[in-house]
Design brief:
The chain has helices at residues 38-45, 71-82, 165-172, 186-196, 227-232, 241-249; strands spanning 6-10, 14-19, 52-53, 62-68, 87-95, 101-105, 108-109, 124-125, 128-139, 149-158, 203-211, 218-222. By secondary structure, the chain is an alpha+beta fold.
């Protein structure tokens, strides 16, 4: 069986990989029928020994995923996440043209994984996301009521870690992420799925930076979006793979 994970960084304490879109990190009550998880593939890369996921990456989101190789490292990095000392960057393609830069400060209600709790009142927690628009385009295709359709490539910087935060925040400012079945716009999702032959979520975790939990050394782990993601971005004139590489690596 081919391992779908690509190793990005590895030492005695950490294992960082690129997770493809569509792969669950671990078993979930929502997807009880699934039998393949990033956790089991990461364990195979770790010589069969246990690994410990230290953060969440949604199933349809691709990109940087970090595992600890021992419980102490998992605890230390988990505390750093809770303290806001881990910095994440995502790349997304959205509907419309957002502002050049901005901050979304919009509290979010918890989304429980257990469907039995969905009718129960859930707590509302603060949630903040910064964004920067990298490229815009208008294509001569009528998808809703306008003769042209506008899209943008944005970098997203979550300052809190709520479930589906980026997807819900971009919907909140009326710039939903393309391919988002739950928070996006169906007509736009279907157009790109038909044009490019896949309906993936256009959201990728491209960078994760933090102090090494043992040495204190500054660690920056980056991952380029996969070929399917880059192929959809071909609608942006001049937004080349070389430029994308420079953005991810900076």
């Amino acid at each position: 069986m081919i391992n779908p994970l690509t190793v990005l960084f590895q030492d005695e304490q950490l294992l960082a990989v690129h997770k493809p879109a569509g792969l669950l990190v671990h078993r979930s009550p929502i997807d009880k029928h699934e039998t393949e998880f990033a956790l089991q593939y990461a364990r195979a890369l770790n010589g069969g020994d246990h690994v410990y996921p230290v953060h969440r990456l949604d199933r349809p989101t691709s990109g940087v995923l970090v595992f600890a190789r021992d419980p102490e490292t998992a605890r230390t990095l988990g505390k750093a996440l809770m303290a806001g000392e881990v910095h994440k960057t995502y790349l997304a393609m959205v509907r419309g043209w957002p502002a050049a830069t901005g901050e979304i400060d919009h509290p979010l209600r918890d989304e429980p994984e257990d469907r039995r709790k969905k009718g129960m009142e859930q707590p509302v927690r603060e949630a903040r996301t910064r964004f920067q628009t990298l490229a815009t385009v208008e294509i001569p295709v009528e998808i809703e009521k306008y003769p042209g359709s506008r899209y943008a490539v944005v970098e997203l910087f979550p300052e809190t870690g709520r479930k589906h935060q980026l997807r819900r925040h971009m919907k909140h400012i009326n710039h939903p992420i393309i391919g988002d079945a739950n928070h996006g716009r169906g007509r736009h999702n279907r157009y790109f799925a038909q044009r490019f032959g896949e309906g993936r979520l256009m959201l990728a975790a491209t960078r994760m930076a933090f102090a090494h939990p043992k040495t204190g050394e500054a660690i920056s782990i980056t991952a380029e979006p996969d070929k399917g993601f880059v192929r959809v971005l071909s609608i942006f004139p001049g937004f080349s793979f070389r430029k994308l590489r420079a953005i991810v690596a900076r």
